[in-house]
Amino acid sequence: MNLPIAMFHHIADNPHPSLKGWTISINQFNIFLDCITERGYETTTFETINLMNPNASLNKKIIITFDDCPASLFDYVVPELLRRGMKAVFFIPTAQIGGINLWDVEEQGFEAVRLMSADQLKYLSASGMEIGSHGDNHKRPEPNQEASKNETHQSKAILTALLGKQITSFSYPYGQIPKHYPALLKSAGYQFAAGIYTPFQTNLSLRRFGIHESDTKQSMSFKLGHIYRGLRFIGDPLLQLYNLIRV
Ligand SMILES: [Zn+2]
């Protein structure tokens, strides 16, 4: 699938130091939204694409994704996206709906942040946003098939029951794509799955790019284009070759 897919986590002006690496400021987020509008891009979602004719053009389409679903996205980001008539995809680890980022707190000592509630996810879904699975417990990949199934199948069942609709997309926790996952995701009925870096891109192992505080409007604009995706096509296999990405 040939279109830009952006990845965000937290958008806030004064993040806790432990979350700084995963946060961009409101101003930086707005610069990105301005950039995609000025470049003539239109936001779409995986579920929209899934319903389109497979031969339909994705030219000038972009998917904006948020991993983890911090509830603070409701402070600014969600109203701003709605105000601009933009869509986005929100990936929630289902065991923590209305909970916290427990995996980061326990493993890395990060500040605890509240994640979106069931009602907030329902509101987003009813507002034209897409809700996808980010696993159940946001686990690191493991070879155990049954435990993995809980992350893929169980999380999908939870979201289907909550939202009353089919769930189309999955986002790999930590961006790591274990070898056995694409087959598991396919058997669970997902159509799309997003990682970060991946040597071979398929609909179940899609590349995404992050936007950082150090990005300029020019570098953001570059990440939207074909040349950037061409560089990733060449660069991502090299990253694996030099063991810089784990699969
Ligand atoms: Zn995550």
UniProtKB/TrEMBL annotation:
<dbReference type="GO" id="GO:0016810">
    <property type="term" value="F:hydrolase activity, acting on carbon-nitrogen (but not peptide) bonds"/>
</dbReference>
<dbReference type="InterPro" id="IPR002509">
    <property type="entry name" value="NODB_dom"/>
</dbReference>
<dbReference type="InterPro" id="IPR011330">
    <property type="entry name" value="Glyco_hydro/deAcase_b/a-brl"/>
</dbReference>
<dbReference type="GO" id="GO:0005576">
    <property type="term" value="C:extracellular region"/>
</dbReference>
<protein>
    <submittedName>
        <fullName>Polysaccharide deacetylase</fullName>
    </submittedName>
</protein>
<dbReference type="InterPro" id="IPR051398">
    <property type="entry name" value="Polysacch_Deacetylase"/>
</dbReference>
<feature type="domain" description="NodB homology">
    <location>
        <begin position="60"/>
        <end position="247"/>
    </location>
</feature>
<feature type="region of interest" description="Disordered">
    <location>
        <begin position="132"/>
        <end position="151"/>
    </location>
</feature>
<dbReference type="Pfam" id="PF01522">
    <property type="entry name" value="Polysacc_deac_1"/>
</dbReference>
<keyword id="KW-0732">Signal</keyword>
<feature type="compositionally biased region" description="Basic and acidic residues">
    <location>
        <begin position="133"/>
        <end position="151"/>
    </location>
</feature>
<dbReference type="GO" id="GO:0005975">
    <property type="term" value="P:carbohydrate metabolic process"/>
</dbReference>
